[in-house]
Amino acid sequence: MTATRAATRVLVLNSGSSSLKYQLLDMRDAGRLAVGLVERIGEQTSRLKHTCLATGRTREQNGPIADHDAALKAVAAELARDGLGLDSPELAAIGHRVVHGGMFFTEPTVIDDAVLTEIERLIPVAPLHNPANLTGIRTAMALRPDLPQVAVFDTAFHTTMPESAARYAIDVKIADRYRVRRYGFHGTSHAYVSRATAELLGKEPEEVNVIVLHLGNGASASAVRGGRCVDTSMGLTPLEGLVMGTRSGDLDPAVIFHLQRVGGMSMDEIDTLLNKRSGLFGLCGDNDMREIQRRMDEGDKEARLAVGIYTHRLKKYIGAYYAVLGKVDAVAFTAGVGENAAFVREAAVAGLEELGLVVDSARNAVRSDEPRLISPEGAKVAVAVVPTDEEKEIATQTYALVGKGT
Are 221 and 215 in contact (CB under 8 A)? Predict the structure, then answer.
């Protein structure tokens, strides 16, 4: 009689409007078995790139993939070629990234009809993200209706914010009617990095206060006290806060009225301006920090000003969250820019020596995929680079919810 192998694998799906990112992990050691991306779904130039980590082999498919249903079926076929198919008895669950969970979802949740209805009800506050997330969920449920499907929400980590941080100073009845408040995003990253930073310091999350700076094309900051978020820079939508690749971040709301009344711009045009034609791209025509650094090194004034505005905003949030927390044990940089742009990290804390924030230039220049300190020995506040791992966080939360009985 052959023993049944335990179901310890979790497939993580991150569904965008025209893309599907995925990872398959074995939760016995949280090791990756396969990773991949389907992009340009619905176009003639669709591409699927799949890598099996066990063999190290990468395969690519190019050609039309009509929709998310076809995309997930193509992913399932690639996994099956490596003996990792969706029909495997070792697959415990599928974990889905869902961007907006409002105040209703404060933790990972097994998906049923009621959960789907609530995610759909939140579309008005996440029109670019929740519809795509729903599509991926429904496609996966159709392929494996017998398997637990879990939603892990970007907003959940931030639901611990006090009302004084989460509320905007507008009419309370109007705010409640239209659910206008600070929700925050990148929550899975902030949760993972704040815990990993505590581990780097040799402490439990409950023992440390951390300022997390998630700096990618989208960027956000959070103040984390004893493992719980008490403030974050993004708001009702991911537009508020830090300067980003193409988003403006903080802005006087009257700018919108001015552009409409004086500039004759429509609301859709303003929406496009602030979300897709602002930030670093709006300031200098590039949103890739590597290219901007190259231009700076060549003396480009627009690139230099763009970085100056970017790091000035970062420094303001570090100072603000230092005040919110009162005591700070660490500032952690993460995501594409945070992990790789040493000059951004150095500029962000320059001049904050009186707060105990100092970067060691030699340590800061080292490139590594491992969490590391870039502050000098004995620094009052640790400055760290902590590579984020949102997929691992989603898999961990998913398996913690459904894996106990497998």
Answer: no
**DSSP symbols for 178-231:** TT-S---S-HHHHHHHHHHHHHHTTS-GGG-EEEEEEESSSEEEEEEETTEEEE
Indicate the SS3 state at residue 247: coil
Beta bridge partners of 87: none
Q: Check residue 268 and give its pLDDT.
A: 94
The percent of residues in the chain predicted with pLDDT above 70, rounded, is 98
Q: Please give the pLDDT value at position 4.
A: 41
Return mean pLDDT, the chain: 93
- How far is 373 from 370, CA to CA, in rounded Å? 10
- Catalytic residue annotation: 154
The structure tokens listed for 287 are 């949103």
Average pLDDT for residues 188-202, to the nearest whole number?
96
Place of tokens 């929400």: 153
Query: What's the pLDDT score for residue 67?
Result: 87
State how far the Cα of 307 lies from the Cα of 268, in Å rounded to an integer: 28
Helix (H) or strand (E) holding 153: strand 149-153
pTM, 2 dp: 0.90
SS3 assignment, position 20: strand
Interhelix angle 113-121/130-143, rounded to 10 degrees, is: 160
Contact 48, 60 (CB under 8 A): yes
- Sign of the dihedral through C-alpha 383, 189, 159, 309: positive
pLDDT in the model for residue 208? 98
